[in-house]
Amino acid sequence: MLTKTFINTKIFQTSTFRLAAIYLLVFAVSAGSLLGYVYYTTVGLLERQTEDTIHAEIMGLADQYKLLGLAGLLDSINRRSSESNGEIYLLVGPDGKRVVGNLATMPPEITEDQIWSDFQISVGKEPNVVQHTARGFQVQLANEYELLVGRDVQELRQFRDLIREALAWAVGMSLVLGLGGGYMMSRNFLRRVDGISDATQTIMEGNLSGRMPVTGANDELDRLARSLNTMLSQIERLMTGMKEVTSNVAHDLRTPLTRMRARVEAALRQENKAEYKQALDQTIEECDQLLRTFNALLSIAQAEAGQMRQGLQALDLHEILIDVVELYQPLVEEAGGTLTLGESPPMRIRGDRQLIAQVLNNLIDNAMKYGETTEGQGAIIDVRGSTSDNMAVIEVADHGRGIASDDRERVLGRFVRLDQSRTKPGNGLGLSLVASVMTLHSGSLQLEDNNPGLRAVLRLPLLD
Amino acid sequence: MHTSELTIASLPGTELHMRILVIEDDREAASWLVKGLRESGHVVDLATDGQQGLNMALEAVHDVCIVDRMLPLMDGLTVIQKIRSADLKIPVLILSALSDVDERVKGLRAGGDDYLAKPYAFAELLARVEGLGSRKLLDPKDAKLRAMDLEIDLLSRTVTRGGKPIILQPREFKLLEYLVRNAGHIVTRTMLLENVWDYHFDPQTNVIDVHVSRLRAKLDKGFAEPLLQTVRGAGYMIRAH
Question: Which residue of A has its CA nearest to B99?
């Protein structure tokens, strides 16, 4: 009961209901004037016509009385009453008795001080006598004769009542429908808003998979719900990613920490200075590796959060390519491989020089580790830049074992290393960082088959 | 000494004994830092909050100042701004747990000369501090740099060793210039990557080492005395004399 009154008062506060009420008021005013006009032009016109006719007739009769005297008047009334078809005539003498006419007596409703009056008449032959309403005009003639001319207005009155009734119904119905419609609309609106509130509540309680209800009406509320749902999906994806990362981090950090702990413990048991030193050296190395992992995770998180987007500056990718290739060439060659930069046009983009360089660093590093045609021979790495469809395209390709097409999506995840033996150094974050930096730059990373080998394709929007 | 590899302990004691001001509120971290710097032959003063640190810096008796980014009473960046507005030219190294490039830029804009993210290797910090402390010894307008029998002409961009010209690529020239400007001091790999290539990320590979060994091959070819030396666990050094 409490909730019901609560909902009811809530409805009157909704914007829809207020809007409906205002519309109703405007509608009532305009409908009222329209109906008033209809009434005036139908019923009003008929009544005025009747009165005009009566008036004209009585004037005619009065003129006749003046010109032809009583005899002429009697003659005229007699003639007219015999053709009577709803017309009423009555002439009474000074004694109040009927002289001529189709009414027996002066109806009691007629008094001397009013000219127009409504009165009742009996119509039809016995036993089918019915009472009709008539309207009459009464004048005093000379010699205290009284003349009454009228019309049976029963049908007119019935018509008037009919019209009035219809108008009353129209007004009543529009009021009821307007109020009811407004109420229903508000209730519907309110119900949908409540649906959204409920969904929000569910999500706040921790159910991230909750979504705003979409009715399919495709109206503004649906559009709102849909954008909210897109946002919620994004949030859910980020949250799931975060949870996954947290558990991955916990798992991936436990291994080196366990190793470190065991090593230190073993060294402590030895009580030998050389052993201590070795254990400490290895511990520092392990710490550095852990720190690298943390830094890489932080970089990915920052790139994904997108806060660095304001820091992006106009730069030429071509120059970074030259720089990075020059930086890496000696290292690749030292390992017995080659690193070549093919033809590359100037590519102006908006980006972060450090992050782009790190992306290229990670791709070249991967190509060096996994791109060797034969183990220990060094990798043949080709880097090239081009432009297509307003995008700068950078390819880093090797001729190694490549990545199976099924794994190409998975390998972008954090801590994913396809090399199960984990003989090569690395933390499984390299490609994750590449992917998140590309997202930050509104670009993309695509891993393709280089037949054989892997071709990583970066696409970044060009500046116009 | 005919080897190109040294350890920190075997270094021909750096003649540079600096007076260093450390402004760091984490007492344990500060004590390790102070201990390390003292062991390296420097005189160290410690301030544990921003206000105290600023007061000590304004005495203008220190050669280098190490400032933590986040400090009680007065923020590290504010300390640096106040030092600069007092028109003190003392070199400042910023230490910070915030590692992103943006923070680095903010720190340098506030008037810092170098930026090191925590946690750091002590050898890295020492190399940077000594680099900063020695910077003022070199006149930046001097068109010629010298180290042992090596001479770099910054105007004609030519290098000679013992009068014999050495042909270098532009990047190798830049690398050598940086090493010689810091002659007598250890230069770490990170310092090289930051100052010669302007990259502030960790490449996770020994990419710098290969460049240095190529440069070394060009410099030392035909000479008995190695000019460019590797300092184990720390970085590289060109001897000044």
Answer: A295
Instruction: Report the CATH number that the domain containing residue A435 is assigned in CATH.
Output: 3.30.565.10
Q: Is the whole model's pTM more than 0.95, yes or no?
A: no
End residue of a domain, out of A157, A174, A207: A207
pLDDT-derived band at A384, boundaries 50, 70, 90:
very high
- Three-class DSSP category at B49: coil
pLDDT score of A2: 47
Low-confidence ranges of chain B (pLDDT < 50): 1, 13, 137
Which residues fall within 8 angstroms of residue B105, CB to CB, at 6 or more apart? none
Check if the beta carbon of residue B236 is closer than 8 Å to that of residue B11: no
Q: ipTM of this model?
A: 0.81
- By the 8 A CB rule, do B6 and B232 touch? yes
DSSP per position, A268-284:
HHHT-HHHHHHHHHHHH
Helix and strand counts by DSSP (H, E) for chain A: 9, 12
Between residues 343 and 382 of chain A, which touch chain B (CB distance below 8 Å)? 352, 354, 357-358, 361, 365, 368
Residues 304-343 of A with CB under 8 A from B: 308, 311, 323, 326-328, 330-331, 334
**Of A63, A80, A44, which is closest to residue A139 (Cα–Cα)?**
A63
A168 and A260 share one domain: no
Count of CA atoms in the C-beta half-sphere (13 A) of A303: 26
User: Is any Cβ of chain B less than 8 angstroms from the Cβ of A449?
Assistant: no
Local confidence band at A249 (pLDDT 50, 70, 90 cut-offs) = confident
